[in-house]
Amino acid sequence: MRPTNFRVFRSRFGWIVLATSLVITCVPIINSKVSAQFTDAVNVLTHHNDNSRTGANLREQQLNTDNVNPRQFGKLFTRQVDGEIYAQPLYVSSLYLPDGGFQNVVFVCTMHNSVYAFSADDPDFAAPFWKVNLGPSIPSADVQPCCPDISSEIGILSTPVIDLATQTIYLVSRTKIEDGTYHQWLHAIDIATGHARVAPAEIILDGFDPKIENQRAALTLSGGVIYIAWASHNDAGPYHGWVIGYDAKTLAQASSWNATRTGALGGIWQSGGGLSVDPDGSIYLITGNGDYDGIYNFGQSFVKLRPGSNLAVVDWFTPHNYAELNEVDNDLGSAHPLLIPGTNLIVSGGKEGILYVLDRNNMGRFNDSGDMQILQSWKAYQGHLHGGPVFWRGPAEDLLYLWSEDDVLRAYRLSNGLFEQDPARRGVTEAPPGMPGGILSISANGNREGSGIVWATHPLFGDANKSTVYGIMRAFDASDVSRELWNSEQYANDSLGYLAKFCPPTIANGKVYAATFSNELVVYGLLPSPRPPSGESKPQIVTSALPGGRVGQAYDASMEAIGADPMTWALVGGSLPSGLTLEPDGDLRGIPSEAGEFDFQLRVSDKFDQSAVAGFQIIVDPAKGIAVASPATDEVWTLKQKKEIRWTAAGGGISKVNISISRDGGQTWTTLENNVDADLGVLKWKVTKPRSDFVIIRITDSRNPGLFGRSGLFRIE
């Protein structure tokens, strides 16, 4: 089954495209009037802005360190989509649309296999210029054997790439069709209409399993070839790290490379980052856990590939302790390689906390005695690094920025061709424990002072590895990252929603575009008018902890905060205990129906929409009671046998129990033992006379005779 066919519906300035039985092949018509509009435009056409993966838009003339502040900057509008957004939004300025003229357009892809072209500027124009759906997605449970890294479905997971010369967006979709088979497809779509340029190419190769292979890394366009890389889901095999090249015009398969040709694993995921390309066209990537021999297998390695029809290893670097990294799942390839502009330097790191600096003309290969042969390596951060470092040549210094798990934002200075190993700048906000740390982008007007901003998203609370968590976006002065300019939790209206893990913000023409797992694109920018000064400090949450509860018993607690009344409370992350509700005034009420530990986050907003967020936990104990586990109903015990009477005392507060027996169905009782430790849970008893068909064991709280548990009827014979 080939998803080559679409129905096209016109919307304002554009089209909505859905799959049908008609085949439509579109040929681009690009005239000089259209091409001229792109000459000086700001565009974000690939992951982290360029094939060096600097993460920097250096032509941002509207946003700066003065006007990005809580009063002047905030959420402008959102765009609703049909699934979670893992791919970085891409942006084209002054795109000529049929019947719509020139428009700034932002492109969004979802895990529901849909592609949207939205107005990048008009808050009131929520409908897409066009939308295309590329077939049924894959239920994530089908391909994740152990861990819900992806929550519901898998469709378009990686960041596409746009060829502006042909006005084509390239992307990979994944489908499961009615016969239960799994497929991966490379698409080439006209960015002005949503029409297919050519029929999509199914990704087929000996040894390539479209169900197991996870196409996580962003697509890369270089030399007329689309390069695509793969890893796995949950490290479940058998799989290999693949790079496959496709001709950008015809989508014919042009080349392929297997990272572990005679071995296994070696996935190329890079937390969604793309392959890097130097000015000579050589391709750089980093592999994860896998076999290594330096001949056919290049797990846990930086790799340089020769481009073209015969992808082949030209050079590489493998850490001396790659085997140890494999043993503890410390992927080297959890971030993409960054090529420092104007130099021969390659920089990146993985999960171990070591930052590596390599010479792309002499990468160092392998030395089992240590890594002394490379330019630099040192312990540069605390937790795992995801998404890759980013780089800016500022007015006074050249800085590399990274933000790992369990750490603060760090900036390292490039000096005399190498990096100083002590941070030149450090942030003060620590990312929460767990994945992914801070995912970064940079905006600046060249190297102009006061223009550089580091944008970051990270979890507000919790670990985004195997759960969906609430996120926050922050903006820092790139010249001094200890100075936070703004964050999305200062005003309730600016909230980001659920974090799109590993996905960097996109900055263009005065706006910041943030993917989310809330099924929406969030757009920030300079507000039409500044927020009025409140004259009040932002709210402060006074409540530091909440009391526990018990299943079946009424719960009532009140949140307290200091701020400008009226204040409104809302749940923004996690889950309340079943049976409890949060009222807008901050009262938590209800009757818990489930025991457990429940973590959640609450936001309070004052009359000026200023807000504060804090995390809380409620521990709900089981309902108080005693349950008799043995003897079981209808069980038969024999005289003089040694048997065990077993029970559980739930809910706390029960220290001693009395044990008695009835042989007449519960009308009269005889004591077997008093003041037995409740936590012991067992009494050994030699079965005594008389025989009976109507025996019951009762276990009673020694201090509260009204609290007891009884067995079912059993027999003694």
Poorly predicted residue ranges: 1-39
Task: Give the tally of β-strands.
Answer: 57
**What radius of gyration results from the CA coordinates?**
31 Å
Number of helices: 2
Query: What is the CATH topology descriptor of the largest domain?
Result: Methylamine Dehydrogenase, Chain H
What is the CATH C-level name of the largest domain?
A: Mainly Beta
Second CATH tier, the architecture of the largest domain: 7 Propeller
CATH superfamily of the largest domain: YVTN repeat-like/Quinoprotein amine dehydrogenase
Q: What number is the mean pLDDT? A: 92
Could you provide a short overview of the structure?
With 717 residues, the chain is an all-beta fold.
Protein traits:
Immunoglobulin-like; globular; Methylamine Dehydrogenase, Chain H; mainly beta; 717 residues; single chain
Describe the protein in words:
This protein folds into 3 domains: 5-526, YVTN repeat-like/Quinoprotein amine dehydrogenase (Methylamine Dehydrogenase, Chain H), CATH 2.130.10.10; 540-621, Immunoglobulin-like; 625-716, Immunoglobulins (Immunoglobulin-like, Sandwich). It is 2% helix and 43% strand. The protein contains 2 helices and 57 strands. A hairpin with a 2-residue loop joins strand 55 (692-701) and strand 56. It is globular and about 95 Å long. 50% of the residues are buried.
Task: Outline the secondary-structure elements.
Blueprint lengths: L4 E7 L2 E10 L8 H5 L19 E2 L15 E8 L9 E8 L3 E9 L4 E6 L10 E4 L4 E2 L13 E2 L6 E3 L4 E9 L5 E9 L10 E2 L17 E3 L2 E6 L11 E6 L5 E6 L17 E2 L5 E4 L15 E5 L5 E7 L3 H6 L10 E2 L5 E5 L4 E6 L5 E2 L9 E4 L10 E4 L4 E5 L5 E8 L2 E2 L5 E6 L8 E5 L9 E7 L11 E7 L2 E8 L18 E3 L2 E4 L5 E7 L13 E2 L7 E2 L4 E4 L2 E2 L5 E7 L5 E3 L4 E4 L5 E10 L5 E11 L3 E6 L5 E2 L4 E9 L5 E7 L7 E8 L4 E5 L5 E10 L2 E7 L3 E3 L1
Parallel strand pairs: 3-33, 22-26, 41-48, 50-57
Antiparallel strand pairs: 1-2, 4-39, 5-6, 6-7, 7-8, 9-10, 11-12, 12-13, 13-14, 15-16, 16-17, 17-18, 19-20, 20-21, 21-22, 23-24, 24-25, 25-27, 28-29, 29-30, 30-31, 30-32, 33-34, 34-35, 35-36, 37-38, 38-39, 40-43, 42-46, 44-47, 45-46, 47-48, 49-51, 51-54, 52-53, 52-55, 55-56, 55-57
